[in-house]
Amino acid sequence: MIRRPKPTDSEADLLEEQERFLASGTPSTVNVVRRPDKRSGDTNGAQGDQRDVVTIQDLPDELPTLTPAPPKKSRLKVDRVRFEDEDPEERLDRHDTHISAVLSKIIERDTSTTPVSLPAFTGLAFPKVFHRPEMESMVPAAGEKRSIFARQIAAQRIKEGNAPLYFAPESRGQTSGPKVLNLSPESTMEMDQLPSRLDSKYQSSNSTVEMLKIHQENQAKLQAMSNGEILEEQKRLLGQLALASAPQPSTSRDERLGEQRLQETVMIGAKKPEQNPLEPMKCFTNSAKYRTNDALPPCISPEEDLPVKPQKEWVHMDKLEPEKLEWIRDLPAPRRKGTKKAMLARFDFAGTLIPPTEDLPTHLGLHHHGVEPELAGYSLQELFLLSRSQVIQQRRLALNTLAHVLTKARAGEFAAALRGSVVSTLLDAGLLFLLRFSLDDNVEGVVSAAVHALRALLVSSDDEDCLDSTLSWFRGLASFPLLPTAQEEEDEEDEGLPEVLRETAQEKEEKKTDHDVARNDVIKGLLRMKLLPRLRYILEVIRPSPRVVQDVLGVLIRIARHSSSAVLDCPRLMETVMSEFLPCSWTVPASPTPQSAYGLPVANAMKLLRVLATTGRHACARLLNSLGARERLSRLLAPEPSELLLEPEEALRVSTEAYRLWAVAASYGQACNLYTDLYPILVRVLQSAHRPRRPSEPLLPLELHRLQALLTLLTQVTHTAGCHQELSQGDECPPPPPVTWGHVTGLQPTVLGLLKGCVRSLGEPVQRESTLRLVPAYLVYMGAFYSQLSIQVTDDTLGVCSLSVVICLCCVPRCSSAVCNPQSCCPAPETIPSLPGLHCAGWTSAGGLPGPNSPFPLITSLCYLLDTLTSIHRGLVRKAVLGYLRCCGQAKPTLSHWVLRHEHHLLYLLLRLACRLVPTDPEVAKHAALFHHVSLVMLPWLLPGSEYLAHELMATMVFNKDFIPEGQIGGPEAAEMSELRVQEHSSPPLQTLGPLLREACVQLPSVRGCYLSHLAHMEPSVLSSRDFHLGRTPWLNTQLLPELSGPFLPSDWPFLPLVSLYERAGAPDGGGLQVESLPAGAVQSVTHCLQWLLLLEVWREDALRVVLPVAKLARLACIFLCSSDLFMEMPVQRLTWALFRLLTRPSQLEALDLNSPPTGLASFNDLYSALVGQFEAVSFGDPLFGCVILLPLQRRFSVTMRLTLFGEHVGLLRSLGVTLEQLAIPMERFTSPPEDSLPLLRLYFRALVTGTLRLCWCPVLYVVALSHLNTFIFSQDATSQQVLRSHLLLFRLPQKDAELGFNTYDQLPPIRQRRLESVLGTQGTSDSKGE
User: Fold this and answer.
1) Cis omega (within 30 of 0) for bond into 7
2) Residue of 1167, 1144, 1229, 1155 lying closest to 1199 (CA atoms)
3) What DSSP character marks residue 626?
4) Disulfide: which of 300, 641, 794, 982 matches 296 by Cβ 3.0-4.6 Å?
């Protein structure tokens, strides 16, 4: 027999049972039975022998998809399952609805014996109003639950003199207990007293006679039974009754009446003294009834223990349910203060964390949960459960609460109170799927709450404000995409397969589930869940309130910063946004706060266009031409904001976003024809900016943002106009823009006059703050104008710029610097890798770099203008600037923060100015070393998109001898003297540093060419970055920077030629190639690299402090691994010896940690194994290579490397001939502390005994092995040493029964005595002559 599946069965168990069932051949129980159609009177299907059975034979191998089930069909629907062998004529007759067919199926019944009762006549015009106190006289029979309406009808029938159905009137003297019928055969029964289950419409005219016959038969059977048989039958029936009623909490009225009739039938014929056996049945029945209704009998829970005393007038209180009444008891007191036990986090409806000790009143609605009911607030689990409730208000309340919790969590309000991340916990619990399901709800309120929660999860207002505030800065239009850091996944299934058979990245991505995708990238997971079509449906069909519209647009902006193509390619999404929220015409709203955002321009819709346009020139052209953004710009910018028939604030925001969109389009050389059309309007807006403003004006920040956006637009148009002449002369260049240089020259005097007015107003405290916000935009415009101008500017302009230098360069606060304060760039507490942000929490209101009071935009724009004008100004050497540069030179910033790009611009412009001033100004030249040091530490900081800056620094400053004053004023001689002092206690150097440093300074131009050639693969990135930084708008493809995955140059870039040569020429197993097979110029490239490294190690050691000593040693090891004899070349040998001596200085040796793996390697042990193998193969006993092999064998490093040499490569001990004089490392580092590894001591002893390790072959390790073995043998305590000596000298033979396991001599044997005397007598002689 096949068993039923159990909940604990696995999938394998179910498949095994299925195979067993199919093999047994048992017929399936799945069938379809045709039931008669009661409405048509068809009774053919009711016959037991005529039924149709459908057997399911071929089940599908895969489970069906979990799509929503189709709507349920009516059980009485005419359409049925049809079969091939069914008679069509019979089917047509059965479904015939003609009048003749219908009349032929009418069944008449006899109504002659049916009593007809007319309503009672009354003199009242309207029925009497029913009051509840009148029900006290209408008490139903015990055990019979009847509704108020039924009891009222029954009382009315009693009053009229008619007996009610199944009701015992008081006039007959019957009690309310169990009804006992003692009917005789001659007795008769009225129609309304017959206990019948048949429907009245199926009763025939002789139904009364039939019931009397059945009653008489029952009476005869009961009289023939004894009392024992009656009791046994009662028990059997009661047991069946209990089984039938226990699992069914609610039964129909007919079933309850049937059970009552069954009890009454059981009691027929019993005599009164023999009714005692029914008492157990009554108790059983009552207990079963209470168990079924989930309540306790009154005898168990008296009314005194209840929270309230029930009243008779209360509805549905005739049956007490104590467990439900427990809910109205007073809650226990909250937990006392001072407890150390962790508590479940609970939140109120505003998302505020409620302390567990806070006692809140219950009327706030925060105690309606089952777990810990005494604590106010809801946990995240309870909110999740509440969000799937069937009650609309509960779903909406839960989603709104989750939105508030997310908002406060992302603001960092729970960082100190909660353990763990709220956002990460919610995402792991399935928040994305919950919100996505809620968006599909058919209730608008729930959808609105889900959109609000989705915006709270995805959008950071601080990040958006920071990006908007830096838009008018120098190169502020560019931004990084908000993408999570790509993580390489190792696929074990593809290991060992050829490249053709491996799955592509797209195939692997398609195989991932939505959960896997969302775990790595939240936005990508939402896109895979079809979020964008649903948002379009919400905007297009549901048409929600203005707040929901703003939330949807905010979510779309965040998605556009991740995947702009998905937003543009979503069907009808952008068309809906353009038609509904950026119309070309609209009517004036009836109220100041319109109830709908449809049909009115929305600032966030324009911002969405601007973010999409930032991704590339093709997307921008699509917006302008296909979607009609060009017409919207003309419509929104032609009138003043006050004439747009919108709210004042919204009108200013719309105008500001329109200028920003236009500026982005102009950065590609697009939409410049609008410049000539709207030129008078632009001039008018520009001239109106000079009017004085009070700081108390509410619209002042918005007006400043609008003016900054206008200046950014004019800057981009000026860059485009400056390229017109170059484009007109070239043959293969893009078509020239419609704006020429003559179109923009008229603006320069106006902007210059406004700039002078701003400088003059800086002394007024009232105007100072607003003026400082505008001056950077003015300076950036002037810099762009002069960068395109070939004629020298007048002296008046230089005077203004000099005045600006004096004003603003006097203070460069380091507190606002992101480089000098790396803690300001730390990730927010709720930042997760799958949902990256900009980490700008609180920067807009605090003193961060993008803050309103930050000096960096002003200083950067000023340096940009000075660099453009190539003016000479001594304000650069002010103490504040030099202090800022020194602080930057010592800083260790967070290298992957977006805001560092703006500070890199400032540092680059300062260094560019220094590069121009150092050769001509002696005061500036005094600090050349500081400028050179800052340029070196800045190179590995530069983020993607700044490749042009790195190229310019390398080409003009990094390898410039003017910035290395040590090479010109006796620096090599000083370094040589220092080297001599360091090595007084050690061996003399093979090559002094002085000549090597002088030669390196002479070869600096060649060194620069070497490094630039190794970075030639970055030429496309450098050219793209150059077009961006020089304002070559027609060649610019996108304002979106590359993905922010970290600096594009590694921190160990000075070792780049060595590493690249090893990757090209080195064998993977460590075996080198011949020098003839090395790439051309490899020796020269390695020489230049070593010269540059030597120069940095001697004079710019701080610039290389980011490279750990173990990483330096690993990079130098590439010299020995990439070829068989490259390290034997004389220039390479000399420079490598010098670098090795620098790395083995006492300070460097203390910092050397071989236990931590160097960058790019799993462990140093693997690299050392390759080095040992290479030495054994090709070294020929080279001392330099030998010193590199000996360096990791110091006692404080891992014993694994010493075991590797003495265990696996013991043969190289014959060629490791480094002498003690050649070794620049003190021997104490090899011999102290004593060795405690017994396997290594065993290998030392074996090498010495077998003659593998000899003093003439390997002097250093011979001394090391002797020292450790001597310490191990002769450093034991005196007692153990005496016992060991006696055992060795007096040992005789092994003996099993002896205490020690061997026998000993009583005294030393003569032969051993003579041998001992000979050894002791010759201990002063040396026996090493044979060696």
Assistant:
1) no
2) 1155
3) I
4) 300
